[in-house]
Amino acid sequence: MPELPEVETVRRGLEPHVLQRRITRVLLREPRLRWPVPEALPRLAAKRRIEAIGRRGKYLLVTLDSGDRMIWHLGMSGRMFVLERGHPLVKHDHLDFELDSGQLLRFHDPRRFGAVLWWPREETEHVLLRAMGPEPFTPAFNGEYLFEKSRGRSVAVKNFIMDGHIVVGAGNIYAAESLFRAGIRPTRAAGKLTRAQCQLLVEKIREVLGEAVELGGTTLRDFAGARGESGYFQQELFVYGREGQSCRVCGSTIKLEVLGARQSCYCPRCQR
DNA sequence: CTGTTAACCTGAGTGC
DNA sequence: TGCACTCAGGTTAACA
């Protein structure tokens, strides 16, 4: 489900409800997520105050007053809702964090590709975050960086920019949309991009992700923010999910190709 | 090292 | 209605 804009939407939605709130109780119903939820997590997180909620790539980072942190990932189908205590349970409600405000954070994830992990304060670096590429909005992610990284790489540029070691946050939707706006065909070998194309692609990735964050993400099937709200970026899509329809710019028929087991839409005329 | 594929899981949608 | 089948926004492990 969620790429960077959706995760950022959830983060922003959670923030006002959790900052400086104390976790009064943690209810773990189903520990079998992407990795097992640590058995000790409910005990360790209970009584702790939440001091910050941040984001790195598609991971949410929750800093507690003990200096320990939790790492949350929504996977493909995960949601983290702010609800009033006593809200009825539904299937796949795996975990609750009850807060001293009377509200609770409820993690719901049918496919269980998500994760809820403990990151002890004595560990300065977490193995999941260590090898991650730069955030798209930081200066470290720039045209020259992308150009250098892509030299000698034969992988399709779409797979290349979806690789979290290169840059974090662009999943299937936003990779496709960024490439459309940059006029680059998703199948193009990364190593064949020119300097100018790398520069343009960086700008378009930032533009697309930025607009999507402002619109609250993309709701295609089941994405919802922390209060259950939909995103609106789906109205801005040029190629994703539009195979067979006409290009909003030139009228050509949008084509679909499978790249690395993922659907990849592009305009054969606008993207070369 | 690079590149490709399968795997993890459930639910929604489609076609018969 | 029901069944078989395909596909889905992410990430890692296992392979060539």
Strand content: 15-25%
What is the level-2 CATH architecture name of the largest domain? Answer: Alpha-Beta Barrel
- Determine the CATH superfamily of the largest domain: MutM-like, N-terminal
Q: What order do the helices and strands follow?
A: HEHEEEEEEEHHHHHEE
Which residue ranges are poorly predicted, with pLDDT under 50 across at least 5 consecutive positions?
A: none
Quaternary status = single chain
Cofactor: Zn(2+)
EC number: 3.2.2.23, 4.2.99.18
Domain FPG-type: 238-272
Keywords: DNA damage, DNA repair, DNA-binding, Glycosidase, Hydrolase, Lyase, Metal-binding, Multifunctional enzyme, Zinc, Zinc-finger
Concise description?
By secondary structure, the chain is an alpha+beta fold. The chain contains seven helices and ten strands. The chain has helices at 4-18, 41-45, 127-130, 143-150, 157-162, 172-182, 195-214; strands at 23-28, 50-56, 59-64, 69-73, 79-84, 93-99, 103-108, 115-119, 255-259, 262-266.
